[in-house]
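Researcher: We're reviewing a set of sequences before deciding which ones to prioritize for further study. For each one, I'd like a predicted 3D structure that I can look through quickly. This is Sporulation integral membrane protein YlbJ. If possible, include the structure in token form so it fits the rest of the review sheet.
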Amino acid sequence: MSLSKLKTIILAIFISGLTVAIILNPKESLDASTRGLSIWWEVVFPSLLPFFIVSELLIGFGVVKFIGVLLEPLMRPIFRVPGVGGFVWAMGMASGNPAGAKLTARMRQEKQLTTVQAERLVSFTSSSNPLFIFGAVAVGFFDNPSLGILLAASHYLGNLGVGLTMRFYGGSDSVIQPKKKKSFFSPLSIALKELHATRVSETRPLGKMLGDAVISSIQTLLMIGGFIILFSVFNKILAIISVTEIIGLIFSGFLAFFHIATDLSVPLITGIFEITLGNQLVSETNANLLDKVMIASFILAFGGLSIQAQVASILADTDIRFKPFFIARILQGFYSSFIAYLLFKPLYLNLQAHNTSDLPVILMTNGPEWAKIYWEIVIHTGPIITLASLLLYIILYGKRNVFTKLS
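Model: Here's the predicted structure for Sporulation integral membrane protein YlbJ, in token form for your review sheet.
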């Protein structure tokens, strides 16, 4: 039997088994599906939509090329990617997964990146946004706002570590950029020329550009929502049939080797599949705080197979390979966990020992819980934003694809 036929049989058995499990556990599947829908409806959609739309407009008007020229002297020597990588990295950190992958794919389609450069870039621009780290994990799950500083520092420094590691990926670049260094004002003048040239070459009127940005962004978010719901159900089914516990026993030995509480094995497995539920389970265990922070950092860095499936779907429209991204997520998981271990005392214990009145408001444990307030605002306004955006999408899509054909 050929390997291709064996793969076909395995996939068929897996999908059939998952279908049967869902049929036999309708209530649990519905609850998991509703939970996934709630996460997408309340948080993911309203959080990512503005960034996606604005990113499309910035690309269309040439602002990204302008930023790319200015950041070229920084990004190319350090990470071996063009200057536009700086824009992708910043937007990825601000808006969270899978924005970095979407923008990298867009840059590749615009031919602003080679395939290898895109694979380097997507590997370290995948991150959770600050709102999720501070609001959901630190405040919502751990009920400890000051823990967000530690989690965010380990997470984003892990991103940096992956970027520095992946600069060695792919060998020598096939395209050597000539050095142009005439004067102090040269980079700015070149950037302005690129900005103007891109804006002039864009033939779509502003209304058409805005409509395209909205439609493209919402279509991507609908795909993301489907993956979130699917993996939420999949994770629940694995827990019901005890697969999670069985795999957890294997991981217990791995955690014991690193002197980490074995109680965290099941939350770790859950987090490998779905980041939100995994971190919630981590916070509910009786393990010591350092162990929980290290595992939470790993889960945040790895991103969960749900997010990775979203990224794989986005990259499928390009020639960017998924394998380097997957390896980078494992690397970042270990980097972030190790950094959390190193920074636990200076960024958490030492700050806890100080008088809170001597600290900035953002670091005060007993101060205004800005993250909690912001998180609650998103939870309450998110469904309204999502509903309004979907209605706008239906109107725009209908106007362009239905009414145009009828007329």
